[in-house]
Amino acid sequence: MSTAVDDALWSAIGDPTRRRMLDLLLTEGGGTATRLGQQLAVTRQGAAKHLVVLERAGLVRGTAAGREKQYRVDDAQLARAAAQLASVGEAWDARLQRIKRIAEAIQQKGQD
C-alpha cells in the first residue's frame, strides 16, 4: 500500500454514527454537538463524545462558539482517509486477482 494505514483514523470512521456526523458536517458546513445530537437522535453528551474521537483522528476541528464548539470537517484529513481507502481497495483487488489466477490454474490442472 502506498499510504500507511492509520488505525486511529479508521477506528474513528468505523462507527456508523460518526460517519453520519461527518456527512452532516460536510452537508451543512459545520455544526455543534447539540445540533448533531438532535439530528442523530443521540444525547448532546453522546454527540460530544463522538466528536472528540473524530477530532483526535484529525477529521474535524472544533472552535469555540459561545458555550459550545463549532465543528468543521478537516478537508485534508478526509482526503487522506479517501486515499487510504483507495489504496486498501487496490491492494485487495490485486490479492483477489492472484487468488483467481491460482484457482483457474488448479481448475485447469484438474481438467488435464
Can you describe this structure in just a few lines?
With 112 residues, this protein is mainly alpha-helical. It has five helices and two strands, in the order ααααββα.
Describe the protein in words:
The chain has helices spanning 7-13, 16-28, 33-40, 44-56, 75-111, and strands at 60-65, 68-73. The chain is mostly helical and 112 residues long. It has one domain (7-111): Arc Repressor Mutant, subunit A, CATH 1.10.10.10. Strands 1-2 form a two-stranded antiparallel ribbon. The longest helix is centred in the C-terminal third of the chain and has 37 residues, at 75-111. It starts with 6 loop residues before the first helix and ends with a helix. The relative contact order is 0.15. The model has no long low-confidence stretch (mean pLDDT 90).
From the structure provided, what is the oligomeric state, counting identical versus distinct chains? single chain
Q: DSSP helix count?
A: 5
Name the overall outline: elongated
Largest pleated sheet: 2 strands, antiparallel
Q: How far is the N terminus from the C terminus?
A: 37 Å
**Integer-rounded radius of gyration:** 20 Å
CATH class bucket: Mainly Alpha
CATH architecture: Orthogonal Bundle
Q: Report the count of strand segments.
A: 2
